Amino acid sequence: ISENPVHTCAIPKRRRVEIYPFTPEEINRLLEQSGPDWVKDGIVIAFRTGMRLGEIFALKWTDINFDEQFISVQRAQSRAGTKVEIKTTKSTSGVRRIDIDTKLALHLLAMEERQSPASQYVFSSPCDPEKYRIPWNISVQLRELCQKAGIPERNFHTLRHTHASILFAHGKHPKMVQERLGHA
Q: Of 137, 138, 112, 175, which Cα lies nearest the Cα of 43?
């Protein structure tokens, strides 16, 4: 052919999706609903830390320093189809320390008390306490909690945006927020 037909094609612009973070009141309403503890525990951790879903469900108890009140993010769950494995974080800046408040530290201690002593993961598998839980249906569970609470449905990743929005609203420097979220 004499010319490349691709040269006349226009690449469609990616449509930006508006993100609506949860309000603290909506988070409280979510947590008041009946639902699985592991889902609500995940919501609390994401809301208070801004961690990614895969980072939360790869957390080990040894990653949490209760005395100095911080979480050390070392790894994340990685999904490829039906295969799930624990890998390093998304980027080198993903390995980080996240300071936690007393409320989250107490919540984590209560979670630890509910678990089997054999559990090394914060979210252990219901079938094998020595392995990690795979949050396959967390999106469905979160949508159901939103419906029960009478709030607009959102996905789990919105909790990261919520955390960042709250930090910005409290006057935190963008560089601090960037590092806390593990963005390069």
A: 138
* pLDDT tens digits for range 70-80: 999 999 998 88
- How far apart (Å, rounded) are the C-alpha atoms in residues 101 and 163? 13
Residue 3, judged by CB atoms within 10 A of its CB (0-12, 13-18, 19+), counts as exposed
Q: What angle do CA 84, 73, 112 make, to 5 degrees?
A: 85
Give the tens place of pLDDT for each residue, 7-59: 888 888 888 888 899 999 999 999 999 999 999 999 999 999 999 999 999 99
Q: Quick one: how far is CA 133 from the chain centroid?
A: 14
